[in-house]
Design brief:
The structure is a homodimer.
Chain A lengths: L2 H7 L1 E4 L15 H14 L3 E5 L5 H13 L6 E7 L11 H7 L5 E7 L2 H8 L3 H17 L3 E7 L1 H7 L1 H13 L4 E5 L7 H15 L2 E5 L7 H10 L4 E4 L13 H11 L7 H4 L2 H12 L16 E2 L2 H7 L19 E2 L7 H10 L8 H17 L7 H13 L6 E12 L5 E11 L2 E9 L2 H14 L9 E10 L8 E9 L4 E8 L2 H19 L6
Parallel strand pairs in A: 1-2, 1-8, 2-3, 3-4, 4-5, 5-6, 6-7, 7-8, 9-10
Antiparallel strand pairs in A: 11-12, 12-13, 14-15, 15-16
Helix pairs in contact in A: 2-3, 2-13, 6-8, 7-8, 9-10, 10-11, 16-17, 17-19, 18-19
Chain lengths: ~525, ~525
């Protein structure tokens, strides 16, 4: 089959830009939507629902800009909209006109299929609802658009009145709709019952069936798979499972399950191997922290901490993985943790290029030091660079240090005119010289970071290319009356590689300073500087 | 049936304290474990697995302290451990002794049931593995312990060599084990195949079957339900789905699905109604941010943002909810958002006690103001108090203000002796008087917060009881070359109620200051103070 046939024989339909953006805390600008569409196209989905032109001004704009700014390789764009209003002709409804004029080759029409919703939400008769479906589908079909029907609240509707729910699907199909998408809008279905209904509907309606699920019962992905098992050949979902309430079916999990476990090629394998990168790139655009536990694509998805496992993983990694993480562009990781013990510290060392197996004393010393620091609140699981500095310090017999800290100060002033100024001073001893430097920034740590680099700039010009990429603060609540501590994680980049460092202290600025010093020290090591 | 019969006829078995604590970033002190056990007991689970005494010192300590410090109403404690080592008697294995001496009435033994794991990880013969199972179960059973068997990697093992996998279960049952728990250790199973295997195993083994699933294929909960459908009457899972890699089956989702959708009473209904509170209380102990999207118990689980829905929700909430959120102690919420439009702002206003339906001008003004601020990076979805201040400001024709800010300064000094000091000064005009006050803290914002309250203390003594509960910082990346902004969310408590406020600025301290001022202003309003 050609790629095009693959996409047509089984539809992977992404609705991140429409239904996904209903998630609490998620708000996408038009530029964000265009960026996400490009990522989804790179993954290789067949269809991208861009939004609701006419109803949401941002979405009208998205479809306008898409015509010149989006050069999709795989995917086709779909415009989402609803059936015509009651009592008007489809051709005269301005919202239907907006769909027609969006430039999208596909229109996905949402329609009521639940008798109570027709009555209470739409406030019309069952006959008029059917006419609205028929007219709108016929009109758009006659205008040359391909039409998919989203049957909203379908499963609840089918349980309430199966004959009417089916009649909605048949009406759409007779009017020219290509797919009837059964939507579990409230997300409450469980797989067994859902599969039975899909099976019945497929037999009774004679149309191509699609499935749209939500995770309110923690079964969105399983429900999508159950529907496919019962004959659905069109699956809707969203990147990273974004969506209202508990989210939509995570399209990444659905695709990986279909392709790697059920043997259906639904996207190009090359796209699948990019899935982890794409999941994180989309999260970057949405500005929501990626879920580390996300199946297949999360940073923890193939991370092992248990001491019990860590020793066996050395023997054969496949014994402890449900798939080869490379297939989805992810990696196995060993976590350094108090739970893990020596076996995982040894493995982690090997990952960083140090063979500790021949040196049990150092291994024991490093393990104890990690346990001691973790008891204070440090966490090396997400701070590889700080762990490597610790390891090198233990191997070398002294901490890795390029400079001595004499003092620092950082402050924010809100002046009488309302202007706020952040400045910092840092005094170091570098290569035998005392250096005092100042920096400013948009916060006290940013000012301190700039002052630190300024103090090191003359002695270490290589530091100029470093950039602070991410800064995370966690309050660790105190146990047994001790004061609460703050853990700071910093990610730094030199334009090629990224590394993460950690600092812990009761004082957030002190913790930040530790992480900054580790970040710069690791950067100097990476540039090949030698400790003086 | 009595409560005890309920728990015995269907086992809800929690393994948060053992398998859940394998999650990356999760580390529980003994006091944390005791606290979580109390929360799970309040929920009404039948069994709590406390850890691995003998192997993990913290867990040995947990079982020791549990005997005097835990007064469980519903649950029984289980100690986790493994079958005896190769070549020794069970009675002589110190790890088996630790299980015997833990004081737990139940011992859950993990055993290999996969031929390749016996060979490569255990490095022994298939016969010796069976002997290890038989001897350890017999010994503990003879010592008066109730024994459950966790058959590790069972499904992969059954697919590799079904006869041997079954033989492991039969051996355990003959030796006195009460339940054979089939573990999908690597988490890669899908519901249909898993259900088929559970069905076959139940017929062939004749023992009581339990199920233990992981979420690597996003099907942990569905897999647990599929196993129950196929005859399993013992389900293992963890609070909030904590666990290694993508986590374990979320026990809260499993229980709610079983009880509310499948009609099985597996915990007391009073416990179910506490589930949302308990889920958040456990998250508080683990110090992991609760997942807002968590099914049933997440703060977003019943939150509506879509304009399309918001207007219909007013007609009949049940049309848009899969269950009544009260059943699990959760609530429907309306979100204020640019997507939502007037209908949701009106609903939100009503939730706060303001009827905007009669005042379309104000409604339009508030809606526009919210859209304008959201475009700048504000988010009112998680900042009810800031939204209420905005609303009251628009209704009253002027911002709600109890004081005028003249200037402030906050700084951190690292002195030559290594000591770090944070201090702040704040100058306000309060009730006509200029007030200058100082504060110190463990960071610049904490110092500023203390200085602000100090400046207000004389005029408003009611502020003394306020406490800053949570402080969150989000970097919002800039769009189209604008500078990045920082959003700060602050949660404040007066010991009874909690409220959240938001601030946005390029400078993190300025953003924090805005949120602090809103927090204090809302606190004064709540105390019944009148704006002067």
């Amino acid at each position: 089959m050609s790629a095009k046939d693959v996409y047509e024989s089984f539809h992977i339909y992404d609705t991140t830009l429409r239904d996904g953006s209903q998630q609490e805390g998620l708000s996408l600008a038009v530029a964000d939507k265009l960026a996400i569409a490009r990522h989804l196209d790179a993954l290789g989905v067949g269809f991208i629902e861009g939004g609701w032109p006419g109803a949401v001004p941002k979405d009208t704009e998205f479809f306008r800009r898409a015509q010149t700014e989006l050069d999709l390789k795989h995917a086709q764009l779909a415009a989402f909209g609803k059936t015509r209003r009651t009592g008007v002709k489809a051709a005269d409804d301005p919202l239907v006109a907006a769909l027609r004029e969006s430039g999208a080759p596909i229109v996905t029409l949402v329609a009521k299929s639940h008798v109570r919703h027709v009555d209470l939400a739409l406030r019309t008769t069952l006959e008029e609802n059917l006419a609205m479906i028929r007219d709108t589908v016929e009109h758009l079909h006659a205008e040359g658009r391909r039409v998919f029907l989203d049957a909203e609240h379908f499963f609840d509707g089918y349980l309430a009145d199966p004959a009417y729910a089916l009649e909605c699907l048949r009406t759409a199909a007779e009017a020219g709709a290509d797919v009837a998408v059964l939507c579990d809008t409230n997300g409450g279905m469980l797989p067994t019952q859902l599969a039975d209904i899909v099976h019945e509907v497929r037999e009774a309606s004679g149309t191509r069936i699609g499935i749209h699920t939500h995770d309110d019962a923690a079964c969105a992905v399983a429900n999508a798979l159950a529907a496919v098992d019962a004959g659905a050949t069109h699956v809707q979902g969203t990147a990273n499972g974004y969506g209202e309430r508990s989210g939509n079916a995570n399209l990444f999990s659905v695709v990986a399950n279909l392709q790697l476990k059920l043997g259906r090629e639904v996207i190009p394998p090359a796209g699948l191997a990019e899935m982890t990168r794409i999941a994180h790139a989309v999260a970057e655009v949405t500005n929501l922290a990626p879920n580390p536990q996300a199946p297949y694509v999360g940073v923890s998805a193939f991370a092992h901490k248990a001491g019990l496992h860590a020793s066996a993983v050395r023997v054969d990694p496949d014994l402890y993985q449900h798939i080869d993480p490379q297939l989805v562009g992810n990696d196995m990781r060993m976590l350094v943790s108090e739970m893990a013990g020596r076996a995982s510290i040894e493995l982690k060392g090997r990952e960083l290029g140090f063979d500790l197996s021949a040196d049990p004393d150092t291994l024991a010393r490093v393990t104890n030091r990690v346990k001691e620091l973790e008891a204070q609140g440090y966490s090396f699981e997400a701070a590889d660079a700080s762990f490597e500095l610790l390891l090198r310090g233990e191997l070398g017999g002294a901490p890795v240090r390029f400079f001595e800290v004499l003092s620092w100060r950082t402050f924010a002033d809100r002046l009488a005119d309302g202007l706020v100024v952040n400045q910092a001073t840092v005094k170091l001893r570098v290569k035998g010289e005392e250096v005092l430097a100042a920096g400013e920034g948009n916060g006290p740590v940013n000012a301190l970071d700039n002052a630190l680099r300024a103090a090191l700039a003359a002695a270490y010009p290589a530091l100029a290319g470093l950039e602070l990429m991410d800064y995370k603060v966690r309050i660790l609540t105190g146990d047994h009356g001790t004061a609460s501590r703050t853990r700071v994680l910093i990610t730094t980049s030199d334009g090629v590689a990224e590394w993460s460092t950690v600092g812990v202290d009761e004082n957030v600025i002190t913790a930040s300073w530790q992480a900054l010093v580790d970040a710069v020290t690791f950067g100097l090591l990476a540039k090949g500087e030698t400790v003086v």
